[in-house]
Amino acid sequence: MAIISMTGYGKDEFKLRGTQCTVEVRSVNNRFLEISCHLPKTFSYLEFTLKEEVKKFLARGSVNLTVTLGDGEEGSIPTGYSTEAVESYLKIAKDIKTTYGLNGEPTLEQVLSLPNVLVYESEENQKETEGKIKASLDRALKALVQMREKEGLNLKKDLEARVQEMDKILDEIKVLDPERIVEWKQKFEERLHKLVGEAGLDPIRVTQEASIIADRLDINEEITRFKSHNKLFLSTLEQGANQGKKLTFILQEMSREANTLATKCQSAKIAAHAIRLKDSVETIREQTMNIE
User: Fold this and answer.
1) How is the chain split among helix, strand and coil, in percent rounded to 5?
2) For the whole model, what pTM was predicted?
3) Which helix (H) or strand (E) is 15 found in, with range?
4) What GO annotations for molecular function exist for this entry (predicted)?
5) What string of DSSP letters covers 155-223?
6) Which of 159, 80, 154 has its CA nearest to residue 123?
7) What is the domain partition of the chain in residue ranges?
8) DSSP state, residue 245
9) pLDDT tens digit sequence for 171-228
């Protein structure tokens, strides 16, 4: 399964008893699936049904679903009430009153103002409306998924290019590394030889100590591990969707290696390359947050 972006948009239009209706679905990145519905009062009873329909198509993301009517709140005069909703609200009120020893009764005005109590369509019209809106929503969701797949393909290509660029930076560091070691040893030995004359230290021993410390500053292991992380990241991308957590873990390891390189290198040139690596890792991390 391909990488899928969480950013997308889908739209569909249809006629409902002579009225133009529009269904729009937008999605952006989110750790979970969160759905918000913006419906005309006429269609408020469909909110749960439409949210369940969205869940059939999407696994993650912040989703905004909007249904609009061409001429505004058509049919906003109620045609009846929901017995089920009224009985449910009154039962809850009675339970709360009994449990907590509260006084008072809900008034008619309060009951009528509660969500989903008033019905704005006949039962026959509701069935027709539900069927048409669900069908329209499905078409809009298919368009959104298609866009998310296209965005996912573009995102995958960009991530691959950025990882390949990090490989090039690591190769540049490898080229600079021998020069760095030689320069560091020369400077270190010069400083120590000055102290040798003052303290009477053994020059051979000083040179040996310089070599030992230079070995501790070796960054070949960090470069090798970083390149290994790059390969793992690319292979994980090929596995497709639902790899977000694994990619995040790999990026954490990359960031750790980049920090170690910057700390150990003792070279302005290599430190600049390490900073480029850290910037690239952060950019990739932000992009992977948009993968479903």
Assistant:
1) 65, 15, 20
2) 0.69
3) strand 8-16
4) hydrolase activity; RNA endonuclease activity
5) HHHHHHHHHHHHHHHHHHHHHHHHHHHHHHHHHHHHHHHHHHHHHT--HHHHHHHHHHHHHHT--HHHH
6) 80
7) 8-78+121-151, 80-109, 152-288
8) H
9) 999 998 877 767 766 666 666 666 666 555 666 665 666 555 655 677 888 999 999 9
